[in-house]
Design goal:
By secondary structure, the chain is an alpha/beta fold. The protein folds into three domains: about 170 residues, MoaB/Mog-like domain (Molybdenum Cofactor Biosythetic Enzyme, Chain A, 3-Layer(aba) Sandwich); about 80 residues, Alpha-Beta Plaits (2-Layer Sandwich), CATH 3.30.70; about 150 residues, Alpha-Beta Complex (Maf protein), CATH 3.90.950.20. The chain is built from 14 helices and 17 strands.
């Protein structure tokens, strides 16, 4: 089965909203053996929506739309599609009562315009939206199949998983397109490619893609047009090969988070962690506390942007700052040791650096970051220079700090 995707929303074309729906839909359809053959984005204009949907139906016979199902005047997808099918909108009392019940649960009353969300094209199947107010719609007739989903990502995602994909199963080829990823950090893409050069040919028929980003390089393996069980077996074996080849630079698969890996390893070792941050302004602590259950491992952190606070809160010697500068391995070491002692932790990581865009020098250019890790053994420090803008330098510094902390925990020195 081939299907096209039409995303509706002027905000998508203006760049005010990032279209994450297309990526999620593409992945989900591929896993079901349904081929997404074209993606089109159009503004909230009836003539553009009509042209995009009609064109998709003529080419492929099936189209999935997102957006334009709300109660406001710029939400016109349903009206336009109903006209293409010559299926007049009819008020659906069941949909309306469901919407009223949702509003009651939240202690609110619907606006008069919300009644339009209970209007359904004649002959359409309502896809109940338990996560929002706009139901999805499944309309099949002479022009072909049109599936309409709301544009709100959380609502789209749930409707796709619970209402759309079950209905599409059996219409696909039975051959799937599936991917797995090995996540790496702390190694350049070119260096990683050299490591994997000898095994790339052995991964066939899987394809391998290198996906560099701020957090590291993801290695994505993809199985094309295989039976689901064959694809899963080949991908599992390929992931194992890549993980072994990447060695200490690999920290997980698929959606793995480095912060979660740090917490898991510390938890198994019975260690409590702390952080001391300057240029990252609490990003390391944020990454760690974003993981559910982190409170049994992470005791807390100190954000000491001003040098006086480095001394007051972390016992950094003012003479060390005067002699080496706030951005130095020596200061990073004392920050980590101070956090270890002051927060009564078993291991602590520190970050100090120049995130830019100003403040650099020939000796310490913008992007220079020093990281320290303290535990039971000697304090470890590292000096790195990251590229990118201020946000990217800070994100890369936080990732590097977590990687150093992971390595320290893994060494058994805590």
């Amino acid at each position: 089965m081939d299907i096209e995707l039409v995303t509706v929303g002027t905000e998508l074309l203006l760049g005010f909203t990032v279209d994450t729906n297309s990526a999620e839909i593409g992945r989900a359809l591929a896993e079901e053996g349904v081929r997404l053959v074209r993606r089109t984005s159009v503004a909230d204009r009836p003539e553009e929506i009509a042209a995009a949907v009609a064109g998709a139906l003529q080419r492929s016979g099936a189209v999935l739309t997102t957006g334009g199902l709300g109660p406001t005047r710029d939400d016109m997808t349903k009206t336009v599609v109903a006209a293409l099918y010559d299926a007049p909108l009819e008020f659906d009392e069941t949909v309306w009562q469901s919407l009223l019940e949702r509003y009651r649960r939240f202690g609110r009353a619907p606006a008069a315009s919300n009644r339009t969300q209970a209007e359904v094209p004649r002959g359409a199947t309502v896809l109940p939206n338990r996560w929002g107010t706009a139901p999805g719609l499944w309309l099949e007739g002479e022009p072909g199949l049109t599936i309409m989903l709301p544009g709100v990502p959380s609502e789209m995602r749930n409707l796709l998983a619970h209402e759309v994909l079950p209905r599409l199963r059996g219409r696909g080829s039975g051959k799937v397109i599936r991917s797995r990823a090995v996540r790496t950090t702390g190694i350049a893409e070119s260096t990683l490619a050299e490591r994997l050069d000898d095994i790339e040919d052995e991964l066939e028929p899987l394809s391998l893609a290198y996906l560099p980003g701020v957090s590291g390089v993801d290695l994505r393996l993809t199985a094309w047009g295989l039976e689901a069980s064959d694809a899963d077996d080949l991908l599992s074996a390929g992931v194992a090969r890549l993980t072994a080849a990447a060695g200490e630079f690999a920290y997980g698969t698929d959606d793995a988070d480095l912060a979660a890996a740090v917490l898991d390893r510390a938890r198994r070792a019975g260690l409590r962690l702390a952080a001391a941050e300057s240029c990252t302004g609490g990003m390391v602590g944020t990454r760690l506390t974003a993981v559910p259950g982190s409170s049994d491992v992470f005791v807390g952190g100190v954000v000491c942007y001003d040098d006086r606070l480095k001394t007051l809160l972390l016992d950094v010697d003012p003479a060390t700052i005067a002699r080496h500068g706030a951005v130095s391995g020596e200061v990073a070491a004392e920050m980590a040791t101070g956090a270890l002692t002051r927060l009564a932790a078993d291991a602590a990581v520190s970050v100090t650096g120049i995130a830019g865009p100003g403040g650099g020098s020939a000796e310490k250019p913008v992007g220079t970051v020093c990281i320290g890790v303290a535990g039971r053994g000697p304090v470890e420090t590292a000096r790195m220079v990251f590229g990118g803008n201020r946000e990217e330098v800070r994100a890369r510094a936080a990732q590097a700090a977590l990687r150093m902390l992971l390595g320290r925990i893994g060494s058994g020195d805590g």
